[in-house]
Design goal:
Layout: H1 3-19, H2 22-29, H3 35-54, H4 62-75, H5 77-87, H6 90-98, H7 100-111, H8 118-135, H9 144-167, H10 175-198, H11 206-233, H12 236-240, H13 245-258, H14 264-281, H15 285-297, H16 302-318
Helix pairs in contact: 1-11, 1-13, 2-11, 3-10, 3-11, 4-9, 4-10, 5-6, 5-9, 6-8, 6-9, 7-9, 8-14, 10-11
Length: about 325
């Protein structure tokens, strides 16, 4: 694994790690029982901010492509995820979410030509098993609507990941703009659903503004920027196999900040899930051979080229 690939993987991993802080921030700083309003506050302001910074709007087919990607990655994913969380114990919802890599493996093989490798499938299954050891309890009960919502939310995010990889971005348009388009579209999808289900927005205090500021800038804007950047440089399956880091981070934060105990079984599950996640990032023989050939040829890697694009994105944002 090259240095650039390691760097890209680590930066991409910061996205699910950030998402793992969502429960803590929501429970400690935000109004209770307003998940859809929170989803809209995460996505829409962050999207508008990134669009304003990039000063680029979609053109042609990218209007509907942005709408589709924004709906899959955010607009449908957030409400379905919250519905699953409300109808199911948190552990069951987290396990359903950790099954997302399996959807990506199948869709990537179908739409991207990424051959489904046994090691990738095993890594996804083992990671989901490890997550289940961390979050499932003996009292966990199943609810049909919650299970369906959890499965569909995972499928929605998986499809969004694959289609983001398939469509890439328009020539000459930076990642900052494309991320902003998706977040804006996703937020616009959530707003009418939130108004219908939850009613008028709640009153906000200083803690809520702090929490929503973090959710907008770090948990969503920066996190999705890094996530989409990773999709552009790594395979779709490699990126999605980083997903289990989210429930693992939530468990660690719960232990460190909320005083929640971690049992030996949970610690073993965390080790298994983390090990499977790392294993899923290791290149196979074909990737190693390709890396060696590029090294001998002295050509720049794709990651290096995309790092140059990242610099261009940030440079545009400062103009």
């Amino acid at each position: 694994m090259t240095v650039n690939r390691v760097t890209t993987t680590v930066l991409t991993a910061l996205a699910p790690i950030s998402w793992g802080s969502t429960y803590f921030v929501a429970s400690e700083l935000l109004p209770a029982d307003r998940p859809l309003f929170t989803g809209a506050m995460r996505a829409l302001p962050a999207g508008l901010l990134l669009v304003a910074l990039s000063r680029v709007l979609p053109k042609g087919a990218w209007w509907w492509k942005s709408a589709v990607l924004g709906t899959l990655n955010i607009g449908a994913f957030f409400p379905l995820l919250f519905l699953s969380a409300y109808r199911l114990p948190g552990g069951v919802a987290a396990v359903l979410g950790s099954a997302g890599p399996l959807f990506v493996v199948g869709l990537a093989a179908l739409l991207l030509g990424e051959r489904a490798k046994l090691r990738t499938v095993l890594a996804a299954v083992v990671a989901a098993f490890g997550v289940s050891m961390v979050v499932l309890t003996a009292e966990a009960k199943l609810d049909l609507v919650g299970v369906i919502a959890g499965v569909v939310s995972s499928a929605s995010m998986g499809a969004g990941t694959v289609m983001t990889k398939r469509w890439g971005r328009p020539e000459g348009v930076g990642l900052l703009a494309v991320t902003g388009w998706q977040l804006t579209a996703g937020g616009l999808v959530i707003i009418p659903i939130a108004a219908l289900v939850e009613g008028a927005p709640p009153a906000l205090d200083g803690k809520a503004f702090l929490g929503y500021g973090y959710m907008m800038l770090i948990n969503t804007g920066a996190a999705y920027f890094l996530w989409f950047r990773g999709i552009g440089q790594l395979t779709a399956t490699s990126v999605t196999l980083l997903g289990p880091l989210s429930p693992l981070t939530a468990a660690v934060i719960g232990w460190a900040a909320l005083g929640q105990a971690l049992t030996p079984v949970q610690l073993v599950g965390m080790a298994i899930a983390f090990g499977a996640t790392v294993f899923g990032q290791l290149p196979g023989r074909a990737a190693k051979a390709e890396t060696a050939a590029k090294a001998q040829g002295g050509s720049f890697s794709k990651a290096e080229g995309t790092d140059q694009n990242l610099s261009m994105d940030l440079g545009k944002a400062k103009v």
